[in-house]
Amino acid sequence: MPMTPLSILDLAPIVEGGDAAQAFKSSADLARHAEALGYNRYWLAEHHNFPGIASAATAVVIGHVAAATTTIRIGAGGVMLPNHAPLVIAEQFGTLATLFPGRIDLGLGRAPGTDMLTAQALRRSLAPGGADSFPNDVAELIRYFEPEQDGQRVRAVPGVGTKVPVWILGSSTYGAQLAAMIGLPYAFASHFAPADLDHAIAVYRDRFTPSKFLDRPYVMPGLNVTAAEKDKDARLLFSSVQQAVVNLRTGRPGKLPPPVEGYEDRLGDPERGILDHALSCAVVGSPATVKAGLEAFLARTGADELMITGQIFDHAARLRSFEIVAHAAGLKTQ
Prior knowledge:
By secondary structure, the chain is an alpha/beta fold. The chain is built from 11 helices and 9 strands.
Protein backbone atom coordinates (compact mmCIF):
# COMPACT_ATOMS: atom_id res chain seq x y z
CA MET A 1 0.00 0.00 0.00
CA PRO A 2 1.42 3.41 -0.97
CA MET A 3 2.40 5.67 1.91
CA THR A 4 -0.61 7.96 1.67
CA PRO A 5 -0.99 10.26 4.69
CA LEU A 6 -3.86 9.32 6.99
CA SER A 7 -5.76 11.74 9.17
CA ILE A 8 -8.68 11.50 11.61
CA LEU A 9 -12.03 13.27 11.71
CA ASP A 10 -13.54 13.27 15.20
CA LEU A 11 -17.10 14.31 16.09
CA ALA A 12 -16.32 14.06 19.82
CA PRO A 13 -19.14 11.51 20.16
CA ILE A 14 -21.21 11.48 23.35
CA VAL A 15 -22.10 7.86 24.04
CA GLU A 16 -25.23 6.61 25.75
CA GLY A 17 -24.56 6.66 29.48
CA GLY A 18 -21.79 9.21 28.99
CA ASP A 19 -21.53 12.99 28.80
CA ALA A 20 -19.63 15.77 27.04
CA ALA A 21 -16.84 15.77 29.63
CA GLN A 22 -16.14 12.13 28.86
CA ALA A 23 -16.24 12.88 25.12
CA PHE A 24 -13.62 15.63 25.46
CA LYS A 25 -11.37 13.38 27.52
CA SER A 26 -11.68 10.60 24.95
CA SER A 27 -10.93 12.98 22.06
CA ALA A 28 -7.72 14.19 23.68
CA ASP A 29 -6.70 10.60 24.39
CA LEU A 30 -7.43 9.51 20.82
CA ALA A 31 -5.45 12.47 19.46
CA ARG A 32 -2.41 11.49 21.54
CA HIS A 33 -2.81 7.93 20.30
CA ALA A 34 -3.06 9.13 16.68
CA GLU A 35 0.04 11.27 17.08
CA ALA A 36 2.05 8.28 18.32
CA LEU A 37 0.76 6.15 15.45
CA GLY A 38 1.84 8.62 12.76
CA TYR A 39 -1.47 10.15 11.66
CA ASN A 40 -1.00 13.48 9.88
CA ARG A 41 -3.81 15.64 11.24
CA TYR A 42 -6.72 15.46 13.67
CA TRP A 43 -9.84 17.45 12.81
CA LEU A 44 -13.03 18.20 14.71
CA ALA A 45 -16.35 19.14 13.17
CA GLU A 46 -18.88 21.86 13.96
CA HIS A 47 -22.39 20.54 14.58
CA HIS A 48 -25.12 22.13 16.67
CA ASN A 49 -28.10 20.80 18.63
CA PHE A 50 -27.00 17.17 18.27
CA PRO A 51 -27.23 15.23 21.55
CA GLY A 52 -24.44 12.89 20.44
CA ILE A 53 -21.84 15.43 19.24
CA ALA A 54 -19.80 17.52 21.67
CA SER A 55 -17.73 19.63 19.24
CA ALA A 56 -20.16 22.53 18.69
CA ALA A 57 -17.66 25.09 20.04
CA THR A 58 -15.12 23.77 17.59
CA ALA A 59 -12.28 26.24 18.15
CA VAL A 60 -12.43 25.65 21.90
CA VAL A 61 -12.23 21.87 21.50
CA ILE A 62 -9.38 22.26 19.01
CA GLY A 63 -7.46 24.19 21.65
CA HIS A 64 -8.14 21.43 24.19
CA VAL A 65 -6.87 18.72 21.82
CA ALA A 66 -3.90 20.76 20.61
CA ALA A 67 -2.81 21.30 24.22
CA ALA A 68 -2.90 17.54 24.78
CA THR A 69 -0.58 16.83 21.82
CA THR A 70 2.75 18.14 20.54
CA THR A 71 3.27 17.51 16.81
CA ILE A 72 0.12 16.35 15.01
CA ARG A 73 -1.80 19.03 13.08
CA ILE A 74 -5.13 19.93 14.69
CA GLY A 75 -7.95 21.62 12.85
CA ALA A 76 -11.58 22.07 11.89
CA GLY A 77 -13.28 19.71 9.52
CA GLY A 78 -14.94 22.01 9.45
CA VAL A 79 -16.19 25.34 10.63
CA MET A 80 -19.57 26.10 9.02
CA LEU A 81 -18.78 29.61 7.87
CA PRO A 82 -22.38 30.82 7.21
CA ASN A 83 -22.92 30.54 10.98
CA HIS A 84 -20.20 33.09 11.76
CA ALA A 85 -18.72 36.44 10.87
CA PRO A 86 -15.39 35.80 9.06
CA LEU A 87 -13.58 38.17 11.43
CA VAL A 88 -14.61 36.12 14.48
CA ILE A 89 -13.29 32.91 12.91
CA ALA A 90 -10.07 34.69 11.90
CA GLU A 91 -9.59 35.81 15.50
CA GLN A 92 -10.32 32.33 16.87
CA PHE A 93 -8.00 30.51 14.52
CA GLY A 94 -5.41 33.27 14.61
CA THR A 95 -5.35 32.74 18.37
CA LEU A 96 -5.00 28.98 17.94
CA ALA A 97 -2.21 29.44 15.38
CA THR A 98 -0.40 31.78 17.77
CA LEU A 99 -0.72 29.34 20.67
CA PHE A 100 0.19 26.29 18.54
CA PRO A 101 2.32 27.62 15.65
CA GLY A 102 2.53 25.50 12.52
CA ARG A 103 -0.09 23.03 13.69
CA ILE A 104 -3.54 24.55 12.99
CA ASP A 105 -5.76 23.89 9.95
CA LEU A 106 -9.06 25.55 9.05
CA GLY A 107 -11.54 23.63 6.92
CA LEU A 108 -14.57 25.65 5.84
CA GLY A 109 -18.02 24.32 5.04
CA ARG A 110 -21.05 25.96 3.48
CA ALA A 111 -23.80 23.98 5.24
CA PRO A 112 -25.21 25.05 8.62
CA GLY A 113 -24.26 21.79 10.35
CA THR A 114 -27.66 21.59 12.04
CA ASP A 115 -31.42 21.84 11.55
CA MET A 116 -32.94 24.99 10.11
CA LEU A 117 -34.45 26.25 13.39
CA THR A 118 -31.05 26.05 15.09
CA ALA A 119 -29.43 27.63 12.03
CA GLN A 120 -31.73 30.63 12.43
CA ALA A 121 -30.72 30.92 16.08
CA LEU A 122 -27.04 30.80 15.13
CA ARG A 123 -27.33 33.41 12.38
CA ARG A 124 -29.80 35.82 13.98
CA SER A 125 -27.22 38.60 14.43
CA LEU A 126 -25.75 38.27 10.95
CA ALA A 127 -26.71 40.10 7.79
CA PRO A 128 -28.78 38.15 5.24
CA GLY A 129 -26.92 36.13 2.66
CA GLY A 130 -26.00 32.96 4.50
CA ALA A 131 -24.59 30.27 2.27
CA ASP A 132 -24.97 32.48 -0.82
CA SER A 133 -22.19 34.74 0.47
CA PHE A 134 -19.85 31.82 1.13
CA PRO A 135 -17.25 32.60 -1.59
CA ASN A 136 -16.97 36.22 -0.47
CA ASP A 137 -16.79 35.19 3.18
CA VAL A 138 -13.98 32.72 2.39
CA ALA A 139 -12.03 35.43 0.57
CA GLU A 140 -12.56 37.89 3.44
CA LEU A 141 -11.43 35.32 6.00
CA ILE A 142 -8.27 34.49 4.07
CA ARG A 143 -7.40 38.18 3.85
CA TYR A 144 -7.47 38.45 7.65
CA PHE A 145 -4.69 35.84 7.82
CA GLU A 146 -2.46 37.76 5.38
CA PRO A 147 0.14 40.36 6.39
CA GLU A 148 -1.35 43.73 7.29
CA GLN A 149 -1.80 46.15 4.38
CA ASP A 150 -1.22 49.90 4.44
CA GLY A 151 -4.41 51.61 5.47
CA GLN A 152 -6.10 48.42 6.63
CA ARG A 153 -8.70 49.46 9.20
CA VAL A 154 -10.13 46.08 10.22
CA ARG A 155 -7.74 43.36 11.24
CA ALA A 156 -7.81 40.08 13.17
CA VAL A 157 -5.80 40.33 16.37
CA PRO A 158 -4.44 37.71 16.74
CA GLY A 159 -4.69 36.44 13.19
CA VAL A 160 -3.02 38.93 10.90
CA GLY A 161 0.06 37.41 9.30
CA THR A 162 -0.57 33.89 10.66
CA LYS A 163 -1.42 32.48 7.21
CA VAL A 164 -3.53 29.67 8.66
CA PRO A 165 -3.94 26.98 5.96
CA VAL A 166 -7.52 27.05 4.66
CA TRP A 167 -9.35 24.07 3.11
CA ILE A 168 -12.71 23.94 1.36
CA LEU A 169 -15.02 21.15 2.49
CA GLY A 170 -17.93 19.87 0.48
CA SER A 171 -20.36 17.12 -0.37
CA SER A 172 -21.21 18.34 -3.88
CA THR A 173 -19.57 19.94 -6.90
CA TYR A 174 -20.14 23.43 -5.47
CA GLY A 175 -17.26 23.16 -3.03
CA ALA A 176 -15.15 21.43 -5.65
CA GLN A 177 -15.55 24.34 -8.06
CA LEU A 178 -14.81 26.94 -5.40
CA ALA A 179 -11.70 25.13 -4.14
CA ALA A 180 -10.48 24.75 -7.71
CA MET A 181 -11.09 28.41 -8.54
CA ILE A 182 -9.24 29.73 -5.47
CA GLY A 183 -6.54 27.05 -5.62
CA LEU A 184 -7.17 25.54 -2.19
CA PRO A 185 -7.03 21.94 -0.95
CA TYR A 186 -10.36 20.12 -1.01
CA ALA A 187 -11.85 17.67 1.47
CA PHE A 188 -14.93 15.70 0.41
CA ALA A 189 -17.48 14.44 2.95
CA SER A 190 -17.82 10.97 1.47
CA HIS A 191 -18.05 9.50 4.97
CA PHE A 192 -21.70 10.62 5.17
CA ALA A 193 -22.65 12.03 1.72
CA PRO A 194 -20.83 9.89 -0.85
CA ALA A 195 -23.13 10.28 -3.86
CA ASP A 196 -21.09 12.93 -5.73
CA LEU A 197 -17.63 11.74 -4.67
CA ASP A 198 -16.21 10.75 -8.04
CA HIS A 199 -17.78 13.63 -9.96
CA ALA A 200 -16.69 16.26 -7.42
CA ILE A 201 -13.09 15.04 -7.40
CA ALA A 202 -13.02 15.08 -11.22
CA VAL A 203 -14.43 18.62 -11.32
CA TYR A 204 -11.90 19.83 -8.75
CA ARG A 205 -8.94 18.34 -10.57
CA ASP A 206 -10.09 19.43 -14.03
CA ARG A 207 -10.71 23.03 -13.03
CA PHE A 208 -7.93 23.56 -10.50
CA THR A 209 -6.03 26.84 -10.82
CA PRO A 210 -2.58 26.98 -9.19
CA SER A 211 -2.34 29.64 -6.51
CA LYS A 212 0.02 31.01 -3.89
CA PHE A 213 -1.53 28.45 -1.56
CA LEU A 214 -1.16 25.33 -3.69
CA ASP A 215 0.52 24.51 -7.00
CA ARG A 216 -1.49 21.37 -7.79
CA PRO A 217 -4.79 19.78 -6.70
CA TYR A 218 -4.85 18.15 -3.28
CA VAL A 219 -7.82 15.94 -2.40
CA MET A 220 -8.70 14.37 0.94
CA PRO A 221 -11.92 12.30 0.92
CA GLY A 222 -13.54 10.95 4.08
CA LEU A 223 -13.86 7.24 4.77
CA ASN A 224 -15.62 5.39 7.58
CA VAL A 225 -13.36 2.66 8.94
CA THR A 226 -14.16 0.30 11.80
CA ALA A 227 -11.51 -2.34 12.46
CA ALA A 228 -11.17 -5.21 14.90
CA GLU A 229 -9.30 -8.50 15.08
CA LYS A 230 -12.07 -10.34 13.21
CA ASP A 231 -14.58 -9.25 10.58
CA LYS A 232 -17.55 -10.19 12.77
CA ASP A 233 -16.22 -8.15 15.68
CA ALA A 234 -15.80 -5.08 13.47
CA ARG A 235 -19.31 -5.47 12.06
CA LEU A 236 -20.69 -5.54 15.60
CA LEU A 237 -18.80 -2.34 16.51
CA PHE A 238 -20.02 -0.68 13.30
CA SER A 239 -23.64 -1.21 14.32
CA SER A 240 -23.32 1.79 16.66
CA VAL A 241 -22.81 4.25 13.82
CA GLN A 242 -25.43 2.44 11.73
CA GLN A 243 -27.97 2.99 14.50
CA ALA A 244 -26.91 6.62 14.86
CA VAL A 245 -27.34 7.29 11.14
CA VAL A 246 -30.76 5.65 10.96
CA ASN A 247 -31.89 7.50 14.09
CA LEU A 248 -30.69 10.82 12.67
CA ARG A 249 -32.22 10.35 9.24
CA THR A 250 -35.57 9.32 10.74
CA GLY A 251 -35.79 12.35 13.02
CA ARG A 252 -34.56 10.73 16.24
CA PRO A 253 -31.03 12.07 16.82
CA GLY A 254 -29.43 10.91 20.05
CA LYS A 255 -26.26 9.82 21.75
CA LEU A 256 -24.07 7.14 20.16
CA PRO A 257 -25.72 3.83 21.09
CA PRO A 258 -23.96 0.62 22.12
CA PRO A 259 -23.47 -2.05 19.43
CA VAL A 260 -26.29 -4.49 18.75
CA GLU A 261 -25.90 -8.03 17.41
CA GLY A 262 -27.69 -8.57 14.11
CA TYR A 263 -28.80 -4.94 13.80
CA GLU A 264 -28.98 -4.94 9.99
CA ASP A 265 -31.05 -8.12 9.97
CA ARG A 266 -33.85 -6.28 11.80
CA LEU A 267 -34.09 -3.38 9.36
CA GLY A 268 -36.74 -2.76 6.75
CA ASP A 269 -36.07 -1.58 3.23
CA PRO A 270 -36.28 2.17 4.04
CA GLU A 271 -33.65 1.88 6.78
CA ARG A 272 -31.43 -0.28 4.60
CA GLY A 273 -31.72 2.36 1.89
CA ILE A 274 -30.56 5.04 4.35
CA LEU A 275 -27.47 3.02 5.25
CA ASP A 276 -26.70 2.08 1.64
CA HIS A 277 -26.75 5.76 0.71
CA ALA A 278 -25.03 7.36 3.70
CA LEU A 279 -22.43 4.70 4.54
CA SER A 280 -21.44 3.33 1.15
CA CYS A 281 -17.91 4.65 1.71
CA ALA A 282 -17.07 2.41 4.63
CA VAL A 283 -14.50 -0.27 5.37
CA VAL A 284 -15.40 -2.66 8.16
CA GLY A 285 -13.42 -5.71 9.20
CA SER A 286 -10.21 -7.39 10.23
CA PRO A 287 -6.72 -6.03 9.49
CA ALA A 288 -6.65 -7.85 6.13
CA THR A 289 -10.09 -6.57 5.19
CA VAL A 290 -9.16 -3.03 6.17
CA LYS A 291 -5.95 -3.11 4.17
CA ALA A 292 -7.81 -4.27 1.05
CA GLY A 293 -10.53 -1.66 1.59
CA LEU A 294 -8.07 1.18 1.97
CA GLU A 295 -6.24 0.11 -1.18
CA ALA A 296 -9.50 -0.08 -3.15
CA PHE A 297 -10.63 3.37 -1.99
CA LEU A 298 -7.25 4.87 -2.86
CA ALA A 299 -7.36 3.24 -6.28
CA ARG A 300 -10.85 4.65 -6.85
CA THR A 301 -10.12 8.23 -5.75
CA GLY A 302 -6.38 8.73 -6.24
CA ALA A 303 -6.56 10.59 -2.93
CA ASP A 304 -3.57 12.61 -1.79
CA GLU A 305 -4.60 11.96 1.81
CA LEU A 306 -7.38 10.02 3.53
CA MET A 307 -9.54 11.39 6.34
CA ILE A 308 -10.60 8.43 8.46
CA THR A 309 -13.56 8.58 10.80
CA GLY A 310 -14.77 5.89 13.15
CA GLN A 311 -17.46 6.37 15.77
CA ILE A 312 -17.16 3.41 18.13
CA PHE A 313 -19.02 3.10 21.43
CA ASP A 314 -16.21 1.57 23.48
CA HIS A 315 -13.20 3.88 23.76
CA ALA A 316 -10.63 1.08 24.01
CA ALA A 317 -12.08 -0.54 20.88
CA ARG A 318 -11.92 2.81 19.11
CA LEU A 319 -8.25 3.23 19.98
CA ARG A 320 -7.54 -0.27 18.71
CA SER A 321 -9.47 0.37 15.50
CA PHE A 322 -7.33 3.37 14.58
CA GLU A 323 -4.23 1.39 15.51
CA ILE A 324 -5.22 -1.40 13.09
CA VAL A 325 -5.85 1.20 10.37
CA ALA A 326 -2.42 2.76 10.93
CA HIS A 327 -0.73 -0.61 10.69
CA ALA A 328 -2.70 -1.58 7.57
CA ALA A 329 -1.65 1.67 5.92
CA GLY A 330 2.01 1.19 6.84
CA LEU A 331 2.19 4.13 9.26
CA LYS A 332 3.62 1.85 11.93
CA THR A 333 5.04 -1.68 11.92
CA GLN A 334 2.90 -4.07 13.93
